Structure formats: C-alpha cells, structure tokens
Amino acid sequence: MSPLFVFQLRRVGRNRQFLFFTVLLPAAFTVFFTRVFAGAPGGISQEQAAATMVSMMAYGAIGAALGATIRLSFDRASGWLRQLRVTPVPQTSIVVVDVAVGMLLTLPPLVVVALTGRFVNGVQLAAGEWLGLVGVLWLGSAVFVALGLLLGWALETKAAGGAIGIVGTVLAALGGLWIPVELFPSGLQAVAHGLPSYWYAETGRAAATGQLPPAPSVLALVAFTAVFAALTVVVARRRPLAAVAG
User: Fold this and answer.
1) Is residue 243 part of a domain?
2) b/e string for 139-173 if b means 16 or more Cβ within 10 A?
3) Residue 53 belongs to what domain range?
4) pTM listed for this prediction
5) Model confidence over 195-243: pLDDT tens digits?
C-alpha cells in the first residue's frame, strides 16, 4: 500500500466533522424521514423505506466524495502540492491516490446507511441485492469524486469550504434525494434530469430491486464523469500550485 495513500487517508479520516456529516448525518436523516417525518413508526411501506435508504446512501456518498477531494484547494494554498512535485513521487501517482481516497471514503456512508435501513426500518433485500446496491453506488460515486477534484482545483480555499455545502445541497434537493422527483413541478423535473445525483440515485433504486442499472443512468454518469475529469485536467494545467496573494 502506498505511503502517500495511507497518509492522505489518515488526514481525512481524522476529521471528525467529515465523519459526522458524511456518515452519521445521512443515517440520522434516514431515521428522520422514515420514522419522524412520516408519522408513527412503521407508517411507511417497505418500498418507501427502501427508496429513502437508497436516497440517503447516495446523499452520504456524494458528501464523502466531495469532502475528500475538494481539499485539493487547501493543499494548493498551503504549498503541499508544490512540495509533492519536487519529491520522487510521480504526478500520476498523486492523482491516483486522490481518486482512490475519494472512492474509498464513499464506502462508510453507504454501508452505515444500508445497515440503518436494514436494522432500523427492516428493509429486506437478498444478499446479492445488498452487495449489488452498495457496489453500484460505490462505482457510481466516481462522478462526484471527479466533481470534487474539479472544484478543488478551480476554487480558492475560502470558497471551497462553502462550496461543499452548497453543491451538496443542490445535488440532493434538486436531484430528488430528499423529495421524490415525481412531486416536482415539470420545470424542476427537467432540472433534476440534468443533474448527476438524479441518475446516480436511479442506479441505486434499480439495484435495490435486483435489476441492472438502467442504460440511460449509466450513460449519463459516464458522461458526467468524463466531462468533470476533462475539465479538471484543463483547470489543473492553468492553476498555480500555491495561492496567489491578492
């Protein structure tokens, strides 16, 4: 295992706020939406409980992916990236480590929220469906890792912190993770279909019913990932490795 990978993973893993907002908060939202907001305990169907669980798994993974990768803005400002450049570590390895850390840290919220759905709301899925659900959402989180890298390179330190909350909220609210898209006005439904979070949750909902992710959802996520990755390369080539005064 790469020492740089272990170091970067520990940096993020020691952040208690990161763990709270990306792991515990989505699990708490799962309970709130199904047990409190819905009324009496057991007042929602298994379908609704499963759908809410999938939405909160997606919400947690999005927050984890963004939080783990947008820190690039802080690394640039502190000169850490410049320091890494003069070490023997290849640039490609640095990028690979950032992507690997972002991908790995999306797993805890996925697993914790899934466990909450199973043991708090009694969501019943076959073993293969549980594995398929977590696997599909884990692979799909690559699109938000790419988005986080883009924001980390594009934004200055002061803007990056607020961007996590704003971007995460927009993706969740307008992508149908808090309220079903079917309840949106027609105009907002069109907006939802233009966001990666909508297609991301759709892949999870399909996996939760034992189906393969719909082709349009997969194609949309691949397209978003490719666009974000390409933009990241363009921005990274033009940005300095340390903040410019003023």
Assistant:
1) no
2) ebbbbbbbbbbbbbbbbeeeebeebbeebbeebbb
3) 3-238
4) 0.90
5) 999 999 999 999 999 999 999 999 999 999 999 999 998 988 887 665 4
